[in-house]
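tool=predict chain=A
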Amino acid sequence: MATGSPDASRILFEDYAEQWICDRVLKVRTEELYRGLLRNHLLSAFGHVRIGDIDEAAVRRWCKERLQTGPTAAPAFGPVVVAKAYRLLHAIFTTAVDDRLVRRNPCRVEGGGREESPERETLSLPVVYDIADAIPVRYRVLVLLVTFAGLRWGELIALRRDGIDLESCEIRIVETTAQLDTGTLLPETPKSRAGRRTVAFPAELVPEIRWHLERFAEPGERGLVFVGPQGARLRRSNFGRIWVKACTKAGVPGVHFHDLRHTGGTLAAATGASLKELMVRLGHSSTRAALIYQHATKDRDQAIAMALGDLARQVGMARAANAGEPLGRA
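tool=predict ok
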């Protein structure tokens, strides 16, 4: 059917959405995410509806039903996944507008695509080392690198010997690993240009990393740094059981592996790292993702208040000296 023809808006949403995905070059995990969002959240509401019949009211009702809670409401879904589904719906209709299938994008729910993720837990360094001590020794450096280098899970399990420079204390991230819902592991390049980066790590980790490479990494220049006891590639499901046991043993049950990356990012921000520096270090292409690591902590806020107090005292002393008046006088 020709774009812009009188009958173009009669195309079913499910047919257009399928073509929308097929027309794009997507990372495997991204395509899997999109298809999951369509299957679980969008097609049930809009699949058999003609694209020209989906209006703003229909989108608002869909959003409310997805998020609504209460004794008479349908099962609600988490706001993060609903926001992802909404952004996908918005993107599909943006293309539909460009294709002249519809005159205007019906996705106009204020804040509909905004994710309000709960704040991740920030751990203290002693707790990080408690977990590193509790986990089987072949995974100790895994715990330390996610914290002190801020690497993602997929980057860690794809890391190879030639990606680590012990002399310059740097790690080059040039590849990652995607794990599909089926469990299949696929090598991939980082999802954005920002993901391809070089990250420095503390020199204090060099002895631990060298010891790990000698005992646990695959042989050869391109050998994987992290593998299982039988040489198999690490999977989230198998490692998850090991992780839960280690956290329980360390006295911090419920901590997620990704909390260590968040901890590392927060610690980097506390050292005074700028927003741009955090973006580069953590492989973020947007400021929104990096900003979460610059949140204030109570201790840091107290330190800021004390520093401001010092400035106030200095100004007060200077003003009093110039006026020849005793301190504290109005």
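Residues 227 and 234 are 6 Å apart (CA to CA). The mean pLDDT is 85.
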